[in-house]
Amino acid sequence: MLDITKPIFVTGCSGFIASNLVDYLLSKGFIIVGYDNLSTGNMSFLKDASKNPNFTFIDSDILNLDDLVKSMQGVDFVFHLAANADVRFGTDKPDRDLKQNTIGTFNVLEAMRLNNIKKIAFSSTGSVYGEAEIIPTPENAPFPIQTSLYGASKLAGEGLLSAYAHGFDFKIWIFRFVSILGERYSHGHVFDFYKQLLKDPSKLSVLGNGKQRKSYLYVGDCIDAIMIALENTKEKVNIINLGTDEYCEVNDSIRWISEHLNLNPILSYTGTERGWIGDNPFIFLDTNKIRNLGWKPKYTIKEGIIKTLQYLENNQWLLNEK
Amino acid sequence: MLDITKPIFVTGCSGFIASNLVDYLLSKGFIIVGYDNLSTGNMSFLKDASKNPNFTFIDSDILNLDDLVKSMQGVDFVFHLAANADVRFGTDKPDRDLKQNTIGTFNVLEAMRLNNIKKIAFSSTGSVYGEAEIIPTPENAPFPIQTSLYGASKLAGEGLLSAYAHGFDFKIWIFRFVSILGERYSHGHVFDFYKQLLKDPSKLSVLGNGKQRKSYLYVGDCIDAIMIALENTKEKVNIINLGTDEYCEVNDSIRWISEHLNLNPILSYTGTERGWIGDNPFIFLDTNKIRNLGWKPKYTIKEGIIKTLQYLENNQWLLNEK
After folding, report:
1. What is the pLDDT at residue A283?
2. CA B274/CA B282 separation, integer angstroms
3. Which chain B residues are Cβ-neighbours of A156 within 8 angstroms?
């Protein structure tokens, strides 16, 4: 599906997942045009990529349609990973998810249409299922009811991709991620907990009651899955859950983190079933579809959390940037 | 649910369905603030309303958030019916559905939030189901895949309403309409066919192969259903299909129209299963939910089509405006 002779466009290329994807694609010899406004990404994640002659970086915003259209000239495939990726805080600034996720995705699709580019992979989220009735949740779960502005904005993005597939003959891949862990991870509970414990190893404040059941996937496994899906699917519209075959409680994660750091913090909970407005007390995706394409993850959730901690231990500068 | 002492806000109030709703609510003694940019509506639909001291008209656009915020002061309930309501032509101007439906709906919700208004009814569409796998299609049908920019924009609007219900404690009613017929109907197949036959009674050009199976509902029945739903539901998020318990082929409709007009036109078909990009060859909604609330339609599809024709025969000025 990916053509080694033609540029591949990656939005949000300085972000956690996208920068890992860029490094992977460059290692395979692909030509990459990376596009990012550096609002939440980090230029240092592109240190290696920037030395590679096959990599071009464009510092601009997906809300700037003119720049997008110009930057996509000659491109054959788009990975659209630019997003506001934090499901929390949606209610603090209700227009952020709409702009950065929904309108941003529309602009990416329009820039593609105007450049006659027809293939796109999109990072969606298990949050589009809302509080799913069926767990593990398959791709064709019952019609979802959104519980967060983030989920709503990603669902809107998915809908736009599908409409472009039907209306403009695009070929699309929608990946519904669980939370991703690993190198360059720079927001989420492992980050927050590690930062708290660095500041004061004796205590840890936990959003919710600690019993939320969550799913995580290691970033390398995530990228493997995307590549396998692109190679092994032929539909016009491909929608694929990505996650491990397990979940953990937030309390499990706290225990693993504490053990790894050799700490025994006193825990305090904000006390409710949901850590924040729109938090989902149980996320667990049915991943039979991607497994049936020949993928399986190399790392468990626990291993992913430990790898993330090791990365943060070796990159403490990141904690001060956020 | 509706408070007779406090203003009710109706967006798109000069449109087909909304102007009928305004007349109904005024007849029951409600106080109405109507808001419309008159882009597709028609001021003459508000001729009676405008004489009523309980009616205030505001000529502005839902894309103007400042005007919306000011206009909603003191309002208790919002009917959000302003929209680009034509499922065809989405691919001609891809940003229209995004702006008028998705961003417009976001603005309505924001204006409500800023005015501390928490109750909203929203006109969505059976098009959000895409080409449904289950027919008749229930509200909890499998996760839909969008086939039109119109459907995608309405799904995005639904998602925003649900996110506001969860994030800001709104109470919401989402009505998924089939095509609506009746007085003030001013776009769609009956309108197009009647207009063609007025010009040349000997022939009729039909989009698609005529075998598309479609559902229709008479506007008076639609408004009855909305009122019954508002009175008889208590959930924070209420999602309700509205349609009759039948469907017809486009060819059935052509026969009824021809009989009523006493014509026998030569038919020519564009020939495909879908009349336009994003057209759905079979729309038929499961309406058990609204029926179980005590509603049933007074008119069949055929009767709705005849009533629409009679309205158009008596209001030929409308044909020249479009």
Report:
1. 93
2. 10
3. 102, 152, 155-156, 159-160
Angle at A254 between CA A251 and CA A260, to 5 degrees: 145
> Going by CATH, does the domain composed of B182-215+246-321 fall within 1.10.10.60?
no
Structure confidence by residue, pLDDT tens digits, A174-199: 999 999 999 999 888 999 999 999 99
Interval B207-240: pLDDT, tens = 999 999 999 999 999 999 999 999 999 999 999 9
Over residues A132-138, the mean pLDDT reads 96
Tell me what pLDDT residue A322 has.
56
DSSP 8-state code for residue A178: -
DSSP string, B2-36: --TTS-EEEETTTSHHHHHHHHHHHHTT--EEEEE
Nearest to B95 by CA among A170, A160, A150, A82: A160
Residue written as tokens 């230029």? A43
Among B219, B218, B242, B237, smallest CA distance to B293 is for B242
Q: A170-174, A278-282, B290-294, B310-314: which range is least confident on average?
A: A278-282
Average pLDDT over residues A197-215: 94
Question: DSSP 3-state assignment of B318?
Answer: helix
- Mean pLDDT in residue range B21-43: 96
pLDDT tens profile B43-91 = 999 999 999 999 999 999 999 999 999 999 999 999 999 999 877 766 7
Amino acid at site A311: Y
Q: Say if the ipTM goes beyond 0.85.
A: yes
Kindly list the distances between the CA atom of residue A276 and the CA atoms of A94, A206, A209, A213, B167, in Å, as whole numbers in the listed order: 15, 11, 11, 14, 10
Provide the residue ranges of all domains of chain A, joining segments of one domain with +.
8-180+216-242, 182-215+246-282+299-321
**A182-215+246-282+299-321, which class in CATH?**
alpha beta
Q: Where are the alpha helices (DSSP H) in A132-287?
A: 149-168, 189-199, 219-232, 250-261
Cα A85 to Cα A62: distance, rounded to the nearest angstrom? 15
CB within 8 Å of B17: residues ≥ 6 apart: B81, B123, B180, B219, B222, B223
B151 vs A163: CB contact, 8 Å cut-off?
Answer: yes
Which of A22, A25, A81 is closest to A57 using CA atoms? A22
Instruction: Give the per-residue pLDDT at B322.
Output: 56
Q: What value does the mean pLDDT take over residues A241-256?
A: 96
Mean pLDDT of A289-314: 97
**3.40.50.720, 2.170.150.40, 3.30.43.10, 3.30.420.40: CATH of B8-180+216-242:** 3.40.50.720
* Cα separation, B299 vs B322, whole angstroms: 27
- Chain A residues contacting B, CB < 8 Å? 90-91, 94-95, 98, 102-103, 106, 109-110, 113, 129-130, 139-149, 151-153, 155-156, 158-160, 162-163, 166-168, 237, 239, 277-278
Contacts of A110 in chain B (CB under 8 A): 94-95
HEC states along B211-269?
CCEECEEEHHHHHHHHHHHHHHCCCCEEEEEECCCCCEEHHHHHHHHHHHHCCCCEEEE
